[in-house]
């Protein structure tokens, strides 16, 4: 099933490029040549050229997606207290020396001293934690979901878990995920858009590596048979990285096959609990060494559960990978052929440094696009392809991004297709506490918007908080727009209050 004829894949991408070109406003021959050349050199279609389409948006007021001038309308659902807290946290986070000092303290041996540790954790709890984390447990997270729901947003609940290394830790993690899925049943219907699942929490990482190795070997060697393999969709394209598997892997042992069965069972238990409340699940993408096994399990669950026109299991595609576009097209087309509705979350990808470092150490080409711009083009191309697909055929799309240009491009395209919040085909998603202006702008423009809600006790979510601190530091960080607009709205509210007093 995963074996795909090279000619078929080539024709598929080429015809996709032609169709994508037809639906974009990019008219110049040069742009079309670029798109065609990109496709024939195994890059995903560069069809929607960001600069050209952004100009179209800017020049056409009727198509305007965001209104950042009217901060009153933008932050209408945010209390002044919350706005002050968010603006203060983001402004402190933007001060590089302050963040560097905090990161140093957090990683120092001072944290071993009980009293000092308690003071630091309490400070973090009332600042960064309250801003970026939805709560310590399902009860607090439920309160956050209700607040978001009242302001026209939904939540993707994400219990902060680390990789599990054995069956015992997988069982524990699964219990937490089942509890998380169960908690959504006491919340307003539709207020939770997805339960986030990490396959590394339900299947031991060593087994994900073994399965990924065997799937790669099977793709390259048609004589290789995998008796345990279930129905799936294409997992690779010709340009996928195969350097992780340089020699023939041993078949799965009887014990490994049993462990794989246990992993299916755990995923099934989480899905069953989530679907009791009609909440779909979204499976996160991780690094390329184990991603084939993650895709395999995602597609296995898709075949099992995606019966209605609305997919209940979503996978994740990382647009920073050179093979992302081809794999997306192959999987979607194969799913259409089988009558299977599939859902994808589209992200840029979070493992850039480790992927590049590994490829470099092996002396092979990095699987990551050579430039940021290539990643942006791939993201926008994949988004355009999927918007076209979900508007004309079955399927669902989550656009997980903080990139304003990508959000604008996709929103304009979706509007052109008549896709709105009620269509249930598209959800924009961003992390809790990030890209607030974009979030409210998309909501006000009539789109479905979710916040990704990591939760857990302070010490458990510390690695997540450190990543957010790193991402938001510096005056030019991605929180720049939020900081400016929040300050503008705070000043406006103060003026209005003073003029009434
Ligand atoms: C709701 C949500 C869910 C997510 N789930 C996942 C997940 O399951 N798996 C996962 O891996 N990530 C996930 N992420 C993280 C995501 O992949 C990005 O790291 C993050 O969102 C930043 O990308 P951006 O689209 O917001 O855009 P931007 O901030 O504009 O782009 C930054 C991204 O561009 C890419 N990039 C930067 N420099 C280069 C370069 N030189 N060459 C090539 N590419 C470059 C990197 O991917 C980087 O993260 C998720 C993010 C969100 C918001």
UniProtKB/TrEMBL annotation:
Residue intervals of the Proline dehydrogenase domain: 143-477
Q: Which cofactor does it need?
A: FAD
What GO cellular component term, any one, is given? Answer: mitochondrion
Gene Ontology MF terms in the entry: FAD binding; proline dehydrogenase activity
* Reaction catalysis annotation: L-proline + a quinone = (S)-1-pyrroline-5-carboxylate + a quinol + H(+)
Q: Biological process (GO) annotations?
A: L-proline catabolic process to L-glutamate
Query: Where in this chain does the entry annotate a coiled-coil region?
Result: none
Q: Which domain of life is it from?
A: Eukaryota
- The EC code for this enzyme is 1.5.5.2
- UniProt-listed InterPro entries: FAD-linked_oxidoreductase-like, Proline_DH_dom, Proline_oxidase
Which controlled-vocabulary keywords does the entry list? FAD, Flavoprotein, Oxidoreductase, Proline metabolism
Question: Hey, which family's this protein in?
Answer: Belongs to the proline oxidase family.
Biological role stated in the UniProt entry:
Converts proline to delta-1-pyrroline-5-carboxylate.
This one is known as Proline dehydrogenase
Q: Which organism is it from?
A: Deinandra increscens subsp. villosa
Q: What is the lineage of its organism?
A: Eukaryota, Viridiplantae, Streptophyta, Embryophyta, Tracheophyta
């Amino acid at each position: 099933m995963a074996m795909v004829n090279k000619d078929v894949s080539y024709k598929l991408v080429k015809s996709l490029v032609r169709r994508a070109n037809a639906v974009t406003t990019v008219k110049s021959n040069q742009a079309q040549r670029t798109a065609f050349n990109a496709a024939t050199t195994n890059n995903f279609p560069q069809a929607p050229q960001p600069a050209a389409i952004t100009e179209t948006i800017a020049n056409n007021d009727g198509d305007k997606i965001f209104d950042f001038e009217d901060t009153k309308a933008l932050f209408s659902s945010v209390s002044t207290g919350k706005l002050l807290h968010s603006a203060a946290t983001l402004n402190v986070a933007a001060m590089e020396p302050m963040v560097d000092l905090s990161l140093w303290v957090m990683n120092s041996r001072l944290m071993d001293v009980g009293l000092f540790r308690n003071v630091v954790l309490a400070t973090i709890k009332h600042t960064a934690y309250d801003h970026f984390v939805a709560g310590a447990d399902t009860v607090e997270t439920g309160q956050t979901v209700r607040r978001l729901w009242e302001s026209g947003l939904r939540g993707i609940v994400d219990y902060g878990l680390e990789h599990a290394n054995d069956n015992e830790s997988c069982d524990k993690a699964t219990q937490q995920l089942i509890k998380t899925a169960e908690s959504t049943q006491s919340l307003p219907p539709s207020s939770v858009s997805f339960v986030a699942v990490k396959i590394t929490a339900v299947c031991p990482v060593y087994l994900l590596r073994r399965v990924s190795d065997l799937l790669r070997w099977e793709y390259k060697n048609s004589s290789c048979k995998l008796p345990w393999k279930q129905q799936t969709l294409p997992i690779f394209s010709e340009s996928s990285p195969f350097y992780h598997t340089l020699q023939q892997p041993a078949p799965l042992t009887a014990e490994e096959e049993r462990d794989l069965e246990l992993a299916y069972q755990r995923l099934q238990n989480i899905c069953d609990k989530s679907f009791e409340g009609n909440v779909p699940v979204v499976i996160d993408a991780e690094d390329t060494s184990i991603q084939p096994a993650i895709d395999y399990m995602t597609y296995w669950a898709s075949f099992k559960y995606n019966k209605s026109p609305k997919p209940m299991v979503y996978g994740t595609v990382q647009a920073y990978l050179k093979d992302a576009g081809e794999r997306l097209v192959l999987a979607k087309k194969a799913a259409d052929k089988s009558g299977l509705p599939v859902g994808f979350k589209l992200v840029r990808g979070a493992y850039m440094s480790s992927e590049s470092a590994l490829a470099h150490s092996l002396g092979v080409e990095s699987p990551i696009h050579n430039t940021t711009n290539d990643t942006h083009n791939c993201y926008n191309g994949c988004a355009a392809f999927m918007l076209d697909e979900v508007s004309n055929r079955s399927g669902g799309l989550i656009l997980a991004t903080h990139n304003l240009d990508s959000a604008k491009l996709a929103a304009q395209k979706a509007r052109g297709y008549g896709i709105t919040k009620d269509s249930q085909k598209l959800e924009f998603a961003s992390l809790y506490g990030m890209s607030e202006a974009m979030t409210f702008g998309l909501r006000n423009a009539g789109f479905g918007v979710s916040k990704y809600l990591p939760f857990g006790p302070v010490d458990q979510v510390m690695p997540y908080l450190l990543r957010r601190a790193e991402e938001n530091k510096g005056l030019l960080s991605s929180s720049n727009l939020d900081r400016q607009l929040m300050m503008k709205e705070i000043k406006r509210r103060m003026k209005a209050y003073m003029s009434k007093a």
